[in-house]
Specification:
Elements (H helix, E strand, L loop, with lengths): L1 H64 L8
Length: 73
């Protein structure tokens, strides 16, 4: 009887260990999806604001290149 209970306990423990290991893999996949979503969001913002930022940097460059002038943002 004790052998039977020990075998059942070991089987349940093995199944529990496998389920815990699979959960770690799912967590890694979830983090990968989150990182991909953040990357898409950053690319979209850069694409949409790229020309505006380019104009701002050109204005700063012109202001730095002309010493003695007052630059107003």
């Amino acid at each position: 009887m004790n052998t039977l209970l020990a075998n059942i306990f070991l089987a349940l423990q093995t199944v529990g260990d496998k389920l815990r290991r699979e959960e770690k893999g799912a967590t890694a996949v979830e983090y990968g999806i989150m990182v991909a979503g953040i990357a898409v969001a950053v690319i979209a913002v850069v694409f949409l604001l790229g020309s505006t930022l380019d104009g701002m940097f050109e204005g700063v460059e012109a202001c730095v290149a002309a010493p003695g002038t007052v630059c107003v943002p």
